[in-house]
From TrEMBL, chains A, B:
SUPFAM superfamilies: 6-phosphogluconate dehydrogenase C-terminal domain-like, NAD(P)-binding Rossmann-fold domains. Gene3D superfamilies: NAD(P)-binding Rossmann-like Domain, ProC-like, C-terminal domain. It holds the Pfam family F420_oxidored. InterPro entries: 6-PGluconate_DH-like_C_sf, DUF2520, NAD(P)-bd_dom_sf, P5C_Rdtase_cat_N, TM1727-like_C_sf. Residues 121-244 form the DUF2520 domain. Residues 4-85 form the Pyrroline-5-carboxylate reductase catalytic N-terminal domain. It comes from the Bacteria. This is NADP oxidoreductase coenzyme F420-dependent. It comes from Flagellimonas zhangzhouensis. Residues 201-220 are annotated as: Disordered.
Length: 253, 253
C-alpha cells in the first residue's frame, strides 16, 4: 500500500483524492492546504492540515495547486524522502525544488461535483530517477488503465493539443448556443450532435470524420452561412476555419 | 400505420430507413434511387426501384438526396397525394415542387456503418398545411422523442450552428491529433478529454463550462503555447479563438 500526501484542496485535489480512496490500494495519509473551508470537506476522510511545516511522511507527495504556486509548495518538502510530483500540464518538472521529483499529470478536464471515471483517464508520468518512475507507474496504475511515460517537452505539446480539443471546442459550442438563442431555439437541439461528433473520433481519425461545406468546397453554402452571421468574431472564425479545412482537403477534391 | 417511400440510397436514407423499420410503426413501401449497387442493400427488406416514373403511393415521400438534387427529385412526385418532404438543413421548403410539401430534418451527423440512437435525435419538421404538419409530427415521433416545429429561417440558422459544433469542432480535434503525432504521441491520449468536453455541455451551458488560459487571460501560458506552434494556420486559429474567449470573459476578470 502506497502512502500519499496531497497538497491542495481544489477541483483536481478532490478528484485525485476520490480516485485514490476508491482504489483501495493507496492510503492518503494527509491533505494539506491553505483554504480552511475546503479542508473541512476532507476532514472526515483523512488527516487535514493548513500548516505546510507539519507535513507527514509519505511515499509520494502530490502537489495539486495552481501552476504559479507549485515551486513554493515544493520548497516545504525539500527534506522529505518521498517523491514530490506536480500535476500540471505546462510546468517543467524542474520547477520542483526537492531532487526526488516527478510529474503526475492526469489529462482530463475536471468539473466541480461531476464524477469522472479515472480508469480511462490517461495519466502522464515523468521522473528523473528510474526507481521513482517505477513508483509513479505503480501509483498511477492503481487508478488508471492508461499510464504513459512522457517528458516535459511532450507534456507541453499535449497540453497545447488539449487547449484545441477542449477549450477551443467548448468555445465553438458556445457560438452554436448563441446562434440558437438568437433564433429562440433551445441549445439542447445541438447536444446530441455534440456527443456524436465526439464519439465519432473515438474510433475514426478526425481527418476521416471531417464533413461539411468547407470539406466539399461548397462555396454556395459557405456564402449563405456568412450572410446569416452577424457577430464579427463569428464571421472571422467561420472564414478562418473554413479556409483551413478547405486547404487540408483541397487535393482530394 | 403510415406508409412511406424513401428517395435516395445514401447514408441518411439508410439511417432513416433503419429507424422506420425498427419502429414497427412505419411501413417503408418502396425505396427509389439511381444507384443500382446501393439499391441492392435494401432489396431483401423492401421494394426497390431505380425508375422515378414508377413511384408507389404513400402517405409521406422522404427525399434523402444531395441538396442540389432535391428540386428535381421532387418534380417526379407532383401528381402524388402524399406529403413530399426533404431532409436538408439548408434547402428552403419551397424548393419542393408539389404543393403538399414539408421538411423532415434530423439534426445529427451520420456515419456509414455506425449505428445511431434515433430516439434522442432532434427531428425538425415544417409544412405549409396544418394537417401535413400533424402527419409529419406523428411520423417523426415514431422514431424520435425530440420533435420540433421549426421554420426554414430557423432551420438555416440551426444548420449554421451545427457547422460550428460539428465540422469546426472536428477540425480542432484534427489539430490536436497533428500536434500529438508531431511529438510521437498517440491521439488516443486526447480521446477521453474530447468525450468529457462534450459530456460537460449536456448539463452545463458552454459559457459556464469554459476553462483555459484565454478565459483566465493567462498571457504567459498563451505566449508559451504560441512558441510551440509551427503551423501558420494553427497559430492564426490559436490567436483568433483565444482573443474571442478573452473578450467574452473580460468583464468577469
Amino acid at each position: 500500500m502506497l502512502n500519499v500526501v496531497i497538497l491542495g484542496t481544489g477541483n483536481l485535489a478532490k478528484h485525485v483524492f476520490g480516485a485514490f480512496s476508491k482504489s483501495g490500494k493507496v492510503q492518503v495519509v494527509q491533505l494539506v492546504g491553505r483554504n480552511q473551508e475546503s479542508l473541512k470537506d476532507f476532514a472526515t476522510q483523512t488527516t487535514t492540515s493548513d500548516d505546510f511545516y507539519s507535513i507527514l511522511d509519505a511515499d509520494v507527495y502530490v502537489i495539486a495547486v495552481k501552476d504559479d504556486a507549485i515551486a513554493e509548495v515544493s520548497s516545504y518538502l525539500k527534506d522529505k524522502k518521498g517523491i514530490v510530483v506536480h500535476t500540471s500540464g505546462v510546468v517543467e518538472m524542474s520547477a520542483i525544488e526537492p531532487e526526488n521529483r516527478g510529474v503526475f499529470y492526469p489529462l482530463q478536464t475536471f468539473t466541480k461535483g461531476k464524477a469522472v471515471d479515472f480508469s480511462t483517464i490517461p495519466i502522464c508520468i515523468e521522473a528523473d530517477a528510474p526507481q521513482s518512475l517505477e513508483t509513479l507507474r505503480i501509483l498511477a496504475e492503481t487508478i488508471s488503465e492508461k499510464v504513459h511515460e512522457i517528458d516535459s517537452e511532450q507534456r507541453k505539446k499535449l497540453h497545447l493539443a488539449a487547449v484545441f480539443v477542449n477549450n477551443f471546442t467548448n468555445y465553438l459550442y458556445g457560438v452554436g448556443e448563441e446562434i440558437c438563442l438568437e433564433e429562440g431555439l433551445p441549445f439542447d437541439l445541438l447536444q446530441p450532435l455534440i456527443m456524436e461528433t465526439a464519439e465519432k473520433v473515438q474510433t475514426l481519425s478526425p481527418k476521416e470524420a471531417q464533413t461539411g461545406p468547407a470539406r466539399r468546397n461548397d462555396e454556395k453554402s459557405m456564402a449563405s452561412h456568412l450572410e446569416l452571421l452577424k457577430n464579427e468574431k463569428h464571421i472571422a472564425i467561420y472564414k478562418l476555419l473554413s479556409e483551413a479545412i478547405k486547404q487540408a482537403y483541397e487535393k482530394e477534391l
